[in-house]
Design goal:
There is one protein chain. The chain is α/β, with parallel strands linked by helices. It has two domains: about 1-40; about 45-225, 2-Layer Sandwich (Nucleotidyltransferase, domain 5), CATH 3.30.420. Helix content is about 40%, strand content about 15%. It contains nine helices and eight strands. This is RNase H type-1 domain-containing protein. Pfam families: RNase_H. GO terms for molecular function: nucleic acid binding; RNA-DNA hybrid ribonuclease activity. InterPro entries: RNaseH-like_sf, RNaseH_domain, RNaseH_sf.
Length: about 240
Amino acid sequence: MNSEICNTVEEILEAHRIGQFERLKNPPHWQGNPKATGLPCNDTMHATTHEIPDCISRALKVAPIPKNMNPTLHYGRRLDRCRNIERIYGNSSYTWYTDAAITSTGGIAAICAHNPIQQRTITASVWTSSPIEAEEAAIALAIISGQQDSRMNIVSDSQNACRQWARGRIGKTAHRLAIGYKSNNPIKIIWAPGHETLEGNQQAHAWARASLPRADSPQAEFPVPVMPTYSEILS
């Protein structure tokens, strides 16, 4: 008798539903008309996306995001990734850390690009209520801030933002910043677990929160939780 533990029909159907949701959310299916796909549109999604400028697209590489990085279930794996990122990129003057924070009332986000070795920190305010769009814009801010360097390593703690850059389509806020890029030097985006032990990431996080309007406080939950993949649900 086979005693293997199998997923229930309900679990398989739910995993399939989420997988389809993720597929339909992205280009070419998601083209500014959420009603066409029957999917809800909220502030965590883009109503419209734009193609990354060609000069960036040709130079851009997004490192693969590892699986099984749940903050609760895989804490040790997250710490190991932070240590590896620190070891490989931490002492490079080409490494930028990015983060964003949104006001508790929404509508305004503070974005930050931080380079600890060069001792450069660039912050800006953008009009958006979408955490994903704000994180994308923070990456774009780092790209245009470090374009005089021979290459760039950009570390972000937003899986959603990294995936959008990898897909080649970003929100309007990030796109407006990205069109200011005038170089062709290599750009690499690396995902790092947020709120762990990576010092550069913690510094960027602190700068972003400190850059919000004084009358406002940052949202309690940021960034947006990442929807698990089909295989992660069934594992």
